[in-house]
Amino acid sequence: MSVHRFINRALSPWMMMEGPDHDIVLSSRIRLARNLKDIVFPTLASGEDLQKVLQLINDSIQNQRFGSIGSFEMIKMNDLEVIEKRVLVEKHLISPHLAEVSERGAVVLSENEEVSIMVNEEDHIRIQCLTPGLQLSQALQIANAIDDWLEERIDFAFDEKRGYLTSCPTNVGTGLRASVMVHLPALILTNQMNRIIPAINQLGLVVRGIYGEGSQAQGNIFQISNQITLGMSEQDIVKDLESVVSQVIAQERNAREMLVKTSAIQLEDKVWRSYGQLAHSRIISSSEASQCISDVRLGIDLGFIRNIPRSILSELMILTQPGFLQQYAGKKLTPEERDVRRATLIRERLKLEKDSMGE
């Protein structure tokens, strides 16, 4: 496999599939934090220790295939340019932290990018599994299988009372962080999110932006995840999160129905105005593009727009991010140059889709 294949294509193969509740849930993610026994954790480890971890992981995956997931490839952060690392962050294949702290860091990617294993981030190993729609249980099953497969080759730091040991105390125990990416435009339009977020927090869950901790919500997309890993089983954590997300889905659907009943013409106008901005703008910022893409996606879900597949919007959400724009340009761009190129790319992509449908 070529490293550039992971960087140059906007949509990972799994993103092109539609899972349960795909109109609201973009993806489900399971992440397992693990550390190697008898090696200092990354926050305090020496360069020699971190290099040893890299070598152990690379030896474990070398020439190995894992069932339907296929083979893996290790990409070392030091081998990538700043823009290339940013692209991997925008595709959610690595964390912003790994991109920044790249000394002897790496990511191990599966062929379809459904599985990524971050090496020497905050922990020695962070196994991440991504699936389309609301499929946390399926993602957990795959992540656990990868975990078992690695544990046959590597000894993990584990305590009989505390469970898996991690750099951050909030991950001790199962080491599990489960999260779901949801698109909630109707709850924003009806001013309900300010009430819902505190209610979710009281249940031991957290609501963050599209790129996790410290990030802002873009395009009405939010990430809901667990905070507690100690004293609960993996299955209970996933069950609790699925239950809360199901309630959020129901509330978003109710809000959409209410908007259609009470403000259908205003909503349809908002959707088509946003489509017009995407189709005709010559300059468009990242935040403006994200909002317009969110509006058009809602219009597709509600049947206002019928000739544009939802996957185009998912593609544009990634293609219009700063890293991808600069990767396609082959050079660093100023914010103003990015805004111009973003508008051009969106216009061309929408026109290509219309032409393919014979419109």
UniProtKB/TrEMBL annotation:
Q: Which SUPFAM superfamilies match?
A: Glutamine synthetase/guanido kinase
Tell me what reaction this enzyme catalyses.
L-arginyl-[protein] + ATP = N(omega)-phospho-L-arginyl-[protein] + ADP + H(+)
**Molecular function terms from GO:** ATP binding; creatine kinase activity; protein arginine kinase activity
Question: Where, by residue number, does ATP bind?
Answer: 27-31, 92, 126, 177-181, 208-213
> What InterPro entries does its record include?
Arg_Kinase (IPR023660), ATP-guanido_PTrfase (IPR000749), ATP-guanido_PTrfase_AS (IPR022415), ATP-guanido_PTrfase_cat (IPR022414), Gln_synth/guanido_kin_cat_dom (IPR014746)
Q: Which CDD domains match?
A: bacterial_phosphagen_kinase (cd07930)
Uppermost EC category: transferase
Q: Quote the EC number.
A: 2.7.14.1
What's the domain of life for this entry? Bacteria
Domain (Phosphagen kinase C-terminal): residue spans on this chain: 24-255
* GO process terms (BP): phosphocreatine biosynthetic process
Q: GO CC annotation: what is one? A: extracellular space
Q: What function does the entry list?
A: Catalyzes the specific phosphorylation of arginine residues in a large number of proteins. Is part of the bacterial stress response system. Protein arginine phosphorylation has a physiologically important role and is involved in the regulation of many critical cellular processes, such as protein homeostasis, motility, competence, and stringent and stress responses, by regulating gene expression and protein activity.
Protein name listed in UniProt: Protein-arginine kinase
Task: Tell me the organism.
Answer: Calidifontibacillus erzurumensis
Specify the taxonomic lineage: Bacteria, Bacillati, Bacillota, Bacilli, Bacillales
Q: Which gene encodes it?
A: mcsB
